[in-house]
């Protein structure tokens, strides 16, 4: 490190490459050097301003597009008051067998053993025994024996007709589409026969979900031919 100038007012040690440092008594003696420093600073500022260029039109268009896209995403994803998961709708209670009384029998096409369509309403008046859960030949036999003249006894299986018991004149049909069960809202159950009685106008007279004996519908059966 250099030493303080003997002619100066006692400066601290300065780097030797600075050379001899002279501090004048009058600050105006440094006016020329100060003006040179100011010129150099102005030159640096002007050169920096010249290097900056305003954005071109394509850049501005791209910037506007980006801002619009971000704003749209924020609008869509921002949680709104009152927005919530819709409450699931609950189906009403299924109709009871008694509620079918007086309703019209649907115009369903069943199939025979040859898979030919057979309109159900063309067999009225009729007692329809759904035997897709159980063949139960004794139920078919007792219905055929109790049915008055002019009333058709129809047995309805699932995919194919179940053969009618020997000695009965029941009409054996199938319901591959399951339309009759769907209409009644009554699924097939093992060892169970469902009975449906409809008059000649197509009006349902009675629905018995599980037949226990002919007594469950014998009174209504005897009036179907009237």
Structure write-up:
The chain crosses the membrane at residues 57-78. Keywords: Membrane, Transmembrane, Transmembrane helix. It is a single chain. The strands form two sheets. The chain has a five-stranded mixed sheet with strand order 5-4-3-6-7, covered by helices on one side. A two-stranded antiparallel sheet has the order 1-2. The chain has helices spanning 31-51, 57-77, 137-146, 179-184, 218-222, and strands at residues 109-111, 117-119, 126-130, 152-157, 171-174, 194-198, 204-208. Helix content is 28%, strand content 14%. The protein starts with 30 loop residues before the first helix and ends with a helix. The longest helix is centred in the first third of the chain and has 21 residues, at 31-51. It has two domains: 1-51, no CATH class; 98-222, Glutaredoxin (3-Layer(aba) Sandwich). Residues 1-6 have low confidence and may be disordered.
